[in-house]
Amino acid sequence: MTNFTQAPWQVQDELIEQPSWGGRYIIDLKGLSDDPLWAGKKVGQSYELAKASKLVEPESGAVLPLSDLIQADPVGFLGQKVLDKFGPDLSLLIKLTQAKGNSFQVHLPEGKALGQWVPKPEAWFYLAPGLFTFGLKAGTSFDAYSRVLHTIDDEMGRLSREVQSGRFTVEDARAQAQQRIQSLDPYAYVNLVEAHTDDVIDLTAGGIHHSWEEDAVRFPDGNLVYEVQVDVPDERCSMRGFDKGKFLEGGGLRSTHVADYLATIEPDPAHNELSRHIRKPLVVSDNANGKVESLFRTAHFATDRLIVPRGAALPMSLAGGFHHLFVHAGEATIAGEKLTQGRSYILPAALGEYALEAGDKDAVLLKTYLPIG
Question: Which phi and psi angles does 161 have, rounded to 5°?
């Protein structure tokens, strides 16, 4: 017998303020537009699930650490099949992101060893049009690209030292950096991709260059992305090859890892073929109860989009383990508990079976779970 409530547990909101590259999308989606706490602020990410997440008890409203709930009853919470395959350490990270202008990055492929780095299987689902770079451009000279990144890195180091010595202002250094970057043009070597709503980008294999870009005219909201990934700290998994000429306050720089970035990228054309990594949702089932579409099917996690017509009820089974539900649009009810737009919930495995009941308009949810097959 489980010793916790067998009902949807809401994941406590954890919004990350980002004055430089965030926005209001996440605040508005979660219904916090009029909350004085977020007045005039911008948010770049919200953690919809992480190792350190806290959950809200459905009946009392008490807030409990996810890790404590798992430890108290791992089988009841995660499910026996999940426990057998993945163990009790739930290394699943789900983020809602509004971002632009991040660094050129790469993640280590599984099975490859390189210094401190470990793989971080990751996938994106675009909630609106956006702009990103992905993979090396066909016909790119890897040696030329390598020289460009090393040259930029050396120049950034020199300019940083000049600022810190008092010879240049940060503004002077930033202007010189942008002029040099424009002349060297690192974008000439990578694919610049316009994302469409519902694009699915699979980065789980690793070894593929990627970055989020910005275009204030065409994409004023930046990139609105639902990210699912293995929970690995950035300092152990994200290798920066180019930080776009950014300086910290006082002229310092974020760490870059040009040599490791270049040693990790898969340079062959097959690995960099966009159609291999970018696709649309795949319909799994579609009937009067609702539509189920597969977004991600990986060895590490799986995510479906569930579209439940107003007034309908879509049955679900937890025989394979717990579910994480994010309500993207509308509202739904499970066993009398209301799930509201912009919020995430955990359905413990002990709940067994449930039905997603839509209200007076269609409900759209993203369901993530661990693959036990």
Answer: -65, -35
The 10s digit of each residue's pLDDT in 338-358 is 999 999 999 999 999 999 999
Q: How far apart are the C-alpha atoms of 174 and 344, rounded to whole Å? A: 40
| Alpha helices per DSSP H over 165-312 | 170-184, 234-237, 258-264
The arithmetic mean of pLDDT across residues 241-269, rounded, is: 95
Q: Where are the domains of the chain?
A: 1-11+60-90+281-373
Q: Does domain 1-11+60-90+281-373 have CATH number 3.30.70.1520?
A: no
Q: Which of 192, 191, 199, 26 is nearest to 129 (CA)?
A: 199
Label residue 2 by pLDDT band (50, 70, 90). low
Burial class (CB in 10 A: 0-12, 13-18, 19+), 368: buried
**Mean pLDDT value across residues 257-270:** 96
Q: Choose among 348, 355, 353, 360: nearest CA to 1.
A: 348
User: What integer pLDDT is reported at residue 67 of this predicted model?
Assistant: 95
CA torsion sign, 12 to 16 to 21 to 24?
A: positive
Q: Are 160 and 250 in contact (CB under 8 A)?
A: no
Burial of 143 (0-12, 13-18, 19+ CB in 10 A): exposed
Tokens of 358: 């839509």
